[in-house]
Known about the structure:
This protein has helices at residues 85-103, 130-136, 138-162, 178-181, 186-192, and strands at residues 22-26, 29-36, 39-40, 74-77, 81-84, 110-114, 121-125. It is an alpha+beta fold. The chain is globular, with a radius of gyration of 18 Å.
Amino acid sequence: MPIPDLAEPTRLRPCCVFANDAGVSVGSVPVPGYEVRNVLGIDDLGTHNYNNGAVSLQRPAEGQRMLTDEASGILYTCRGGFVDIAHVRDNADRTFYLAAQIGRMPATGGTISLSDEGGARHVIVHPLDPKLVHAHGLRTVVTGLAEWVDFQASIWHEIATWYRWSSTAFSEQSVGVFARRYLLQPVGTEDRG
């Protein structure tokens, strides 16, 4: 079965607001009547959609999404504490994308360009060792590589946001959240892999 040539997920979901009913502002101008209901229960997550992006088009008053039931926010887990579901979803998307791209070039290798996050990013893929692929299977090898590359990209994302890079027009967070979060980044990576 041929591996699809997926488009890179470039529409990052807003993340990291550790609050409920938080207001939204563009720059220093508050958006009246719009609140982020950010703390979720397991039943609030909805269905994951590839590359869903920053806007899930929800009615602020009722919290009912108009185009998708996917929700992102903070979810409390017994073993992981508070988990940022936007990061889980974005890492799952990027891992899936990378696995598809690496899987399309196992014999030849190639370059995968990733969208700019404070600088140009390229993944150079060397041809995969045929013995390794034969021993473990293409899917296992490709998935493992994709998970590793995504984890590296997620660390870069945290470094870039530490220095105020933002994927949206509004600032997603203040600095100071990097130290603990890198421990949870593999959650989305492992989920999609």
